Amino acid sequence: MAFATVEDVAARLGRPIADSETPRFQALLDDVSALIADYCTANNWTMDSPPATFKAVAAAEAIRWSAVDPGVVLERTGEMETQYGVTASNNELSQAARNSLSKYRLKATTISVRETQCPPE
């Protein structure tokens, strides 16, 4: 289940999504939604009622990922330079997304353990 729809992306882009772009955006939304669910590890939310933040992050990440050409690491317009390489932008959440989602993650906690003396029998 994607946390945002293609219509949510269109609203944020301020333009309709062409029919030819719809499958790509749906795939991006599915991918980023899976990463959000993994990152947040079902703490204080359920798949039936995810926080509204999830929709905003999913749409924003899908837009960010759609703007990246796969494999392009560097582009320069003066004297036309392009470098290709492996990029992680399409398989990980941005730092801004992780910051927005951090309150939905499970937190590591400590517990205090105290030894008590048992009364003699």
How would you characterize the overall build of this protein?
α1 crosses α3 and α2 crosses α3. The chain is mostly helical. It has one domain. It has a two-stranded antiparallel sheet. The protein is built from four helices and two strands, in the order αααββα. 17% of the residues are buried. A hairpin with a 4-residue loop joins β1 and β2. The chain is elongated. The mean pLDDT is 81.
Number of domains: 1
Order of secondary-structure elements = HHHEEH
Structural class: mainly alpha
Oligomer: single chain
Main β sheet profile: 2 strands, antiparallel
Mean pLDDT: 81
Tally of helical segments: 4
Spatial strand sequence of the major β-sheet: 1-2
Low-confidence stretches: none
Globular, elongated, flat, extended or rod-shaped: what is the shape?
A: elongated
Q: How many runs of DSSP E, i.e. beta strands?
A: 2
Radius of gyration: 21 Å
**β-strand amount:** 5-15%
Spatial gap, N to C terminus: 60 Å
Describe the SSE topology:
Layout: H1 6-13, H2 22-40, H3 52-66, E1 72-76, E2 81-84, H4 95-101
Antiparallel strand pairs: 1-2
Short description:
With 121 residues, this protein is mainly α.
Question: Descriptors for this entry?
Answer:
2 strands; about 120 residues; about 5% strand; elongated; two-stranded antiparallel ribbon
